[in-house]
Amino acid sequence: MSSLRPLIPLLIAAGILLAGNGLQGTLIALRGAEEGFSETLIGLMGSAYFAGFLIGCLCVPRLLRGVGHIRAFAALAAMGAAGSLLLILFVDPVAWIAIRFLSGICFSSLFTTIESWLNSAASNSNRARLLAVYRIIDIGAVTGSQYMLPALGIEGFTVFAVMAMMITLSLVPVSMADRSNPKPPAEFSLNLPAVWRISPLAAFGCLSVGLTNSAFRIVGPIYGQSIGLSVSEIATFMSAGIIGGAVMQYPLGALSDRRDRRQILLGTTIGALISALAIVWFAGDDRTANMLLVFLFGAFAMSLYSLSVAHANDHAKKDQFVQLAAGLLFFYSVGAMAGPLLASLLMQRFGPHALFAYTALIYAVLIAVTIYRMRARPAVPRAHRPRFAALLRTSPVFMRMARRSRNARPANDG
């Protein structure tokens, strides 16, 4: 781990931001409900966040070229911290929608900045370990942040102040990190027809994941609140889904490396569909049943993005990976912009379990598309497929890091 020591400040900053982002998403839903905002308004706030998220990913390379990583990070963190405080100063749905849009720009730009920095500083000898550590930090930070809500409470000023402090404190390790000026990432140019031609199934899979997983992350807390869960139980409910995905991504990915990846994508989607329907039909208001079934739901649903991207990589050339990363993130973000709003509208009309009925419907369509594509195109030979990589949906840079890790030859650290 000594080779990762210079990157520790950046990893600490990433952990703080991942925790703050996870905390803010759940807090917005629960506090918004306490303030009397409808499910539709809360869903619209989630859609606004993902609209800003996409803009940030696409525009931040230009900012990094103009002012460098440290100045860009400082400006974005200041805006993010100010936005967290504005949420409590202006408790109004229109204001919160605007703030969440700006938060999406800030958080996606901050993640792109950190991941670009990590990518430049990493070497072939430590890249795989860096990605593993980053994944662990992601899971630990996002799940741990959920439990700050019952500890701090969702009422009053305190939790918003702590959230602003977290974003501000992320400046400290970045300011103390290596002062080198890494090369900014390339522009994430969008050629959506080309991405669709590389893999229609992967494009539709990422769109489906955006429609479903974003809805779970944004309005899942409202589902938990509606069935009578306490704040601490909602934290456990959301964490169970995230941890389920973390547990199953690598086994499913390893299996997809050995077989036709579309078979694993199909089986995983069927698992997500069955677990979503089980929540609708059998969980009811039972706390234990909901916790167990959402773990299974997360195990399958949270793995679909990485499997879809891996399938696209099977058909891509080396010079297409950056374009592919941006295009697939675009399809995901379009789905993520629509998903929370659609799910919240259905929940407001039909009740909380409509969330998982809606996700089951999307997965049913994805199953049909997968079966059709399996008949329309032969499988890529195993020898010609790159290895699976579990991915975060933080920026296209993360996909590039994962690709370089898979392509690197093992090296001896000494």
From TrEMBL:
PROSITE patterns named in the record: MFS (PS50850)
Domain Major facilitator superfamily (MFS) profile, first and last residues per copy: 198-414
Source species, domain of life: Bacteria
Gene3D superfamilies: MFS general substrate transporter like domains
Coiled coil, from the record: none
Keyword set, alphabetical order: Membrane, Transmembrane, Transmembrane helix
Pfam families xrefs: MFS_1
PANTHER family, per database record: MFS TRANSPORTER, TRANSPORTER MFS SUPERFAMILY
Identification of the protein by name: MFS transporter
